Structure formats: C-alpha cells, structure tokens
C-alpha cells in the first residue's frame, strides 16, 4: 500500500496538460503516455493496482527527471519525485528492467555505475599530498574519478589551499540508483561514515548529479556546496585573468532547476571570458537527455534530446561549458564545439607565475 | 485485427493499442473516463477520412482529440472506439497577411500560432488560459475563448472556412476564403462548438487581427465580489469595452501569489483586472475612464506600470484555475460546475449565490473568470482521499447550474458540454434539443462521431 503522502503527491495533478508544452520526451514521441501528464496518470493507475506491462514501465522510465514540468506546473505537483518514487515501487514489485538491474548491481559491487574495478582515487593520492583530515571534502564523483581525471586534478589544485581533502574510500553518491528506483542506503552510509572519520563539515561537489544527491538525499549533517558556489565565494583568492574566448553555458538540470544554482557558474565564467547564452537557459534550459537512466535505458531517445540541446548553442562560441560530467559525456559526441568543464576553463584562466 | 486495419491506413508507428496509451487517452482534464480500443495519430485528411470510413463499417465510435485539456470530457471515448489524436497534424500551412488570414491544421497549439503571427504584428484573438497546450481544433470544437472575448469575441468569430471529414468519410469545405459570405447555410458555424459530434476538422482558415499598439492594465480592489460585479455592470454600461475584464476573489488572489510570488496584488475581497487596448492616446483615455468608474466602489486602484508586470499578471491569471491546488497540500482542483455564463446584470446576484453555497456546504469556492462577458469560473478543491468529496462538489455544481439556467444563463460559456454537462442540455434548451438531435441524425445517422456527448 502506498503512503498517503505519496498518493497525495500523485493526486496533485489536475491533468491540465500544461506540461505537454515542455516535456522534452513528449516532444520527441508525441504519445500521451510519454508526457508528464501521462506519467502522472499512470502513476495513479499503478497506485490503484494497474497491471505493469512493458508499455507502462517505459512510460515511467523515460523521464529524464529534468524537472522542467515541475517548473511550469500550475498545480504545484513535483513530477520527477513522483516518478522516482514510483520507479522504486516498480522495482520493489520485481519489475526491474535489465538496464536498471545492471546499474544497481554494478554500482553496488564496484562502487560506480560504469563497473570499473580498479581503485577509484589512488591515482590522485599518488600525485598529490592529500591530507587525512580537513574542514572540507571534495567529493570527486564516479565520472571524475574514472573519466575526467585531468579535470579533477585541476579542480583539486584550485582548491587544495582552502583546507580540502577527499574521502579515502569514496563510493558513488547513489544518484544513478536513486533516480532509477533502487535503494542507495548502503552507498550513502559508506560515504557518510568517512565524512565523520575525516572530521569535515562541508562537502564540495563538482558534479551536478552528486551535488543534488548529497544535498537532498543525504542526512542533513553536513553543509553541501557546489564547487561553483565555493569558488564564486572565493573568487578574489583565485587570481584569474581574462581569456580571449567566448563560451556558452549549459545549465545542468540537477544544478539549475533542481537547486537554483544559476548565478555562481555565470559569475565565474564572466570573470574570465565572454558568455553567450544558449537559446534556452536557467529555469527554461533544455535537458541534455542524459539523466534519469534514459541515456542507458533508451539511448536513441537520449540522443535525440542531446541533438536538440546542442542545436541551441549560439553562433560564434569557442566552447560549451558545463558543470556536470554526465552532461559533458552526453553532449560531447554530438557537438562540433568542444564541451568542457567550468573547472577546465578556470584553470586556463589562472595567472601563470 | 482493428490494429492491423488502422496500421494499413496510418502506418504502424501511428497506431497504438499499448495499455499505457489506452489508459492515458481514457482521460482529459475533466472527471470523465472511458477506455478507447485504439489510438491513432493521423497525418492528413485522407487518413482521417479512411479511418472514419473504417469505423463506419465496423460500427465503432471515432473521437477526435486535441491536447486533452478539455474540461468536459469532450475528448474522452466514453463508449470506446478509436481516438484520433489530432495533435500530430500541427502545421501552420500559410500565413496570408494581405487577406488577413492564416491556414492551419487542427493540431496547432494556440500559443504556437500566436508566436508565429506576432512577427507580422498580428494575432489570433481568442485567448484561453490553456494557450500553452490546447489546440486550435479543440478550441474550434468547443467554441473556446478566454480573457479577451469581452472585446474580441469567441473562436467562432474568427473561423472563415473549414475542411471537415464527415461521418460518411467524405471530405468537405464549409466556407470561403472571404471575410464575409451570405451564401448558403453556415456550415462553418455549425461545426464550431459541435465538439467532434458532426465531423472531424482537418484544416481551418482563420481570420487574424492586428496586434494593438498599446495596452494598459488597471487593477481595482473591492471589499467583496458583489461590489466588483456591480462595477463591471457600470463599466460596460458606460460604453467602455475593455479588451479584458477579469475577476479574482480573495482565494484567487492568494492563489496567484502562490503561483508567482513576484506578482504584486493588494489584499482585497476581490480584484478586477481590466485591460484596455488600442492606439496609445485612446488607451490612456479609456484607462482614465475605467479608473473613474471603478473609483465609485473600489477600495483601491493601481495601474500595472510595465509590459513585463502585465505579462506576469496575465500569465498567473491564466493558470489560476489549476494553481488553486497549491493553497492546501491535501486538496486538488476538480473541474465541475466551473464554466457558467450569466447576463451581465445578473452577475452581482450570481456571485452572492455562489458565496452562500460555499457557506452552506462548507466548501471553499474560488471565483474567478471572464466577468466582462458574464463568464464566471467557480473553482472547487477536494481532498481526493475523501470518499464523499466528489459527491458534495457535484451537488454544489448542480445547484449552480440550475440557478444559472433560471436567470437565463448558460451552463457552458466556453469549456463545452461534453459528458460533464450533458444532463443540463434539455433544461437549457427545452424547445430546441430536438433540432440538434435531428441535425445530428442527418449528418451522422449511425452515431459514430463522439457518441455519448452533449445529451444528443
Ligand atoms: C488550466 C486550463 C485553463 C483553461 N482555460 C480556458 C479558457 O480560458 N477558455 C476556454 O475556452 N477553455 C479553457 N480551458 C479548456 C480547454 O483548454 C479548451 O476547451 C480547449 O479548447 C480544448 O482544446 P484541446 O486541444 O485540449 O481539446 P480536447 O480537450 O482534446 O478536445 C476538446 C473537444 O474538441 C474535440 N476536437 C478536438 N480536435 C478536434 C478536431 N480536429 N475536429 C473535431 N473535433 C475536435 C474533441 O472531440 C472534444 O470534444 C482551460 C483548460 C485548462 C486545463
Ligand atoms: S502541469 Fe502539473 S497538474 Fe498539469 S498535467 Fe502536468 S503535472 Fe499535472
Ligand atoms: S522531468 Fe522532464 S522528462 Fe520527466 S516528465 Fe518532467 S519534463 Fe518530462
């Protein structure tokens, strides 16, 4: 039986259809079951015991959790939360898809969704003198640890003077599991335990997905900041100089809409170069198509969204800057213009001694 | 079997009998429900005609659907059958500024049409709150309108010619490409407001209007809704035709604030939002005149100072009906009894009656709407987990409808009759229902087009 509170969150939807005008998946597929409203109806159906066949599961699982529907919903419904919860229910009922199962098993056994088996941050410890204790912990994240080590190193160097360390045995923050209906309690507990051991009070995340999860799904015991907030606060200590380039900025859904961090990244970018906004930005920014398990579960659909987002890049920019390694990984193959992390941009702009 | 036959007409990817789709297309924004046998997404009138012919052979209902934002169950297949999701036919075919017209497919979303017309300095004036999602087809089928109908009229006033697939599968054109015609029965007008029961619209030629040079919004506050109602009577009888004249009661004011905290509204028992438009000087003059009339009964008057402020105000106003769900986390808006129209001078009495019902039944009723043309919306919310909630609002709605008919009003000023209001058709049209039935019988003898609607 579903909790009353969860049921009420589904019943908030008045079926007005406002979200039809914004849901990027619906725009792609056109059928009602792939619109936010359709998913809300199906969530209600599931709460009433509807049979779960593949089409029902596809409806619920094709949401990228981009949240633009929530932004527009007049009734105050929070569809991405509803769908995450309902995914959880579906998984509990034993209707996990192969893609969800893979993601869960990989992440729980290796500590990362990519199923990488070699040690996660040993390379960083080898190259840098990382302290055992500090006030602040830089939460590196899975893609950072395994795919973007250069960016991580730059990030670390940029903030290492500010009393920062990393978790000695960091594991995935749990985001991929939580967004796709699995339980992430084990991972969360593991990371929290180390936070306590390190004695830190602040977690600094550089990935939008990690940030969102640490901020909203972890016990409320630490301050969680995004690296861009942390750096924007310390802008004067960074000794940056201007670069003769123009960039555009892609707002990651889980940083922007979900957590209202729009200004800090822009403050940092405009401190070092020209910024030209994408056709949609901030609250209205289009989703890159990477989130919510859609990239893994429905690659063709995800790709269609990515292409639409890349098509919004304005003329005459040298780079697409973002603050989320998932958005970056997702967009790079479809963009002629290189996609970089904001931290890469900042290190380029650091004054050379 | 049916699936295969439909696939042969519209192609495999445009037919669905998946359970997810059958479920989602069993609703619109009303409380009506009915499961379709199949849903298709046609792409031209030839496909629509072939599907209608097939449905005729099989004796299956055919229900056209736009965005499903309708509030009366119009697009709900209450007797099953094939749902035609017309939102797949969404091309703006031609914008012809010289002839003051635009040719569209029915699935074009209202807002998209106005976005396309705006660079030319033109617009399609009917202005529903559902602009972001509803389709032109749905608007035509319901004769929808909105905030600007007090001056600009309803959708009906803007349709010049239609391409319609009739129940026998023939494709007909109903009008002409001229701005007026006196030739023959007005079949265009017959189709408007027929809610998909007489034919399926596959193309429309619409008259467009130049955008006004200037607009000004006056915000007048009152101690109660009845005083606001009296003021509307005074404004209109003073010979002023505002381009919009909306009422928000105290609950609606609070709802607007919750929806968009940047919109500044005064604390009041009711507010009138009055817009005047036209040439710069005339707008100023009319705004002054409106202010003067309002000042007799208003407790405060304010003029929205910037275009941005007005835009935010109208945007919040548009969605206030759904946004009322924000007032109480346990309650959800249900659309019943929501779309009444009364003669202008009956407004104060009607507002008072709704207030008394709210007290009698102990149900908060938000009143808002296009008061300038006598169109009031009564917004009721219920706790969806309360078993008796629905029954109580239905009783209130029934009382409202009966009163409206008593005073010479209508149970639907713009949202349509569909399933939700069909039981009031005899009451509202005691002498003419038989004519409507005969028209229906003549044009759709086997009753395949959207059956179970409009009390036909
Ligand atoms: C928040 C909100 C605000 C609203 N505000 C307003 C408002 O201010 N004014 C107003 O008038 N309405 C308003 N509505 C109601 C609704 O949006 C309108 O009735 C709209 O015209 C319906 O359009 P749709 O495309 O959603 O049609 P649907 O709901 O899909 O269908 C409506 C009717 O049209 C028929 N139909 C659809 N397409 C065709 C076609 N091609 N040929 C023949 N029949 C067809 C259907 O069979 C059905 O009977 C509002 C609704 C909501 C949820
Ligand atoms: S906008 Fe909100 S209330 Fe309206 S259909 Fe979408 S989720 Fe439901
Ligand atoms: S979160 Fe994004 S993808 Fe998911 S339903 Fe809302 S708009 Fe669609």
From TrEMBL, chain A:
SUPFAM superfamilies listed in its UniProt record: alpha-helical ferredoxin (SSF46548)
Keyword terms of this UniProt record: 4Fe-4S, Iron, Iron-sulfur, Metal-binding, Oxidoreductase
4Fe-4S ferredoxin-type domain sequence ranges: 3-34, 53-83
UniProt cross-references to Gene3D superfamilies, sorted A to Z: Alpha-helical ferredoxin (1.10.1060.10)
Entry keyword annotation includes Membrane: no
One Gene Ontology term of the molecular function aspect: 4 iron, 4 sulfur cluster binding
Keyword Magnesium: no
GO cellular component: plasma membrane
Pfam families, alphabetized: CCG, Fer4_8
Family: Belongs to the HdrC family.
Name of the protein in its database record: Fe-S oxidoreductase
Originating organism: Methanococcoides vulcani
UniProtKB/TrEMBL annotation, chain B:
Keywords: FAD, Flavoprotein, Oxidoreductase
Gene3D superfamilies per record: 3.30.465.10, 3.30.70.2740, Vanillyl-alcohol Oxidase, Chain A, domain 4
SUPFAM superfamilies xref list: FAD-binding/transporter-associated domain-like (SSF56176), FAD-linked oxidases, C-terminal domain (SSF55103)
Cofactor: FAD
One Pfam match: FAD-oxidase_C
Domain FAD-binding PCMH-type per the UniProt entry, residue ranges: 32-211
Keyword Oxidoreductase: yes
UniProt xrefs under PROSITE patterns: FAD_PCMH
GO function terms (MF aspect): FAD binding; oxidoreductase activity
Signal peptide positions (record): none
Entry keyword annotation includes Oxidoreductase: yes
Similarity comment: family membership: Belongs to the FAD-binding oxidoreductase/transferase type 4 family.
Identification of the protein by name: D-lactate dehydrogenase (Cytochrome)
Phylogenetic lineage: Archaea, Methanobacteriati, Methanobacteriota, Stenosarchaea group, Methanomicrobia
